[in-house]
Please model this.
Amino acid sequence: MTTFTRRTVLSSMGAALATPALLSRANAAEVTLRLHHFLPAVAPMHTRFFEPWAAELAEASNGAIEVQIFPSMQLGGKPPQLADQTRQGICDIAWTLPVYTPDRFPVAETMSNPFMVTNAEKSSVVLHKLMDEFGAGEYRGMKPLAFHTHDGGKLHTRGAPVTSQGDLDGLKLRAPNQATGEMLTALGAEVVFFPVTDMVVGLSNGVIDGCCLPYEVVPAYKLQELTSYSAAPAPGARGLYANTFALVMNEARYEGLSDDLRGVIDAASGMGLSERIGKQFDEFEAFGKSLVEKQGNEIVEIPAAEIASWQEAAKPVHDAWIEKLDRMGKDGAAIMARANALLDAG
Model:
C-alpha cells in the first residue's frame, strides 16, 4: 500500500476530480462507510451531492473507500437521533440539523435565529468560520466534515399573500424552528410546530394556512401545489431565517483510517465542502422557485421597511439566545456579533 502526503491528495481531487487518483490499490474497497440521512432518495441533496461526493471519495482513493448511502432513515431511528447514531457508530457519517436537538449544539444552532442568513453559499462559509472560532469540541465523538445553511426561508400561503405584519395577524403557520416561531408569534401569527413531513397533510386539510420554508423544499413536497402565494424579503435584505446543517463522521472511525485515507477525507471536507454545499443549495433554491413560477403561483416582495420592523421584533429573540449561550459558559454577545459581522462583510 502506497502512502502519500496531504498535498498529493489535494492535487488529485479538484472540483470534479478530473485527474486519476494516485493511490495504488486493488479494486475491492478497504473501507466501507455508511452515510445516513433523512431525505428521500429523489431529493436533490441525495442525487446531486451525496451520490457525487461518494463517487469522488471512491475515485480519490482508487476504490479503497466505498460510501454506502442510506436515505429516508433506512438504518432506523428518527432524524433527531442522527448525531447520536454517528457518535455511537450506528452509522459512520450523518447529515443532520442542530435544531433537531435544541440547545445541544448551541454555536451551530446560533445562525438558525431569524435574519441570520444572506444566501446559502456565503452563510455556509460564515457558519463554518463561526464553528472554527467558537464551536470547537461541540461535536464530541464526531469529526465535523462540513457545516452549511440553506437560503433564506420564504412565507408560502394558501389563501392570501403576506407583505406586511397585518397579513400575519391570526395566520396559522408551521414554523421551521423555535426561534423563528417566537418571532412570527410576536408578529401576530398563530404558530404550530410539527415535522415537515406532516406539513403536507396540514396544508391539504387546512389545519395550517401556510409555512415558512426555502424554495429548495418545493420539489420534495410539491409545495407549489399546496400553496398559491410565496413572499420573500426585498432584494438586499437578510433572509427570514435559515436552518443550519452539520455533516459529521464518527471520530473513532476517522482516526482508525490509514494516514492516506484520512488525507482523502480531509481533502473532501472542511471549508471548501461547506462552501460547495451552500452553492448547491442556492442552485436548489433557484430550481424550486422555477417550479413555483411554472405553477403560476403569485410571488410577492416584503418591502425593505417592513423587514426592518420585523428585525426589530426579532431582537428579543436574539437577546434571549445570547443569554442562553452565556448560561452555557459561552460568550453569547461575541458569537452573535461575529456572525453578524461575517454576514455583513463583503
In short: The longest strand covers residues 142-149. The longest helix spans residues 271-295.
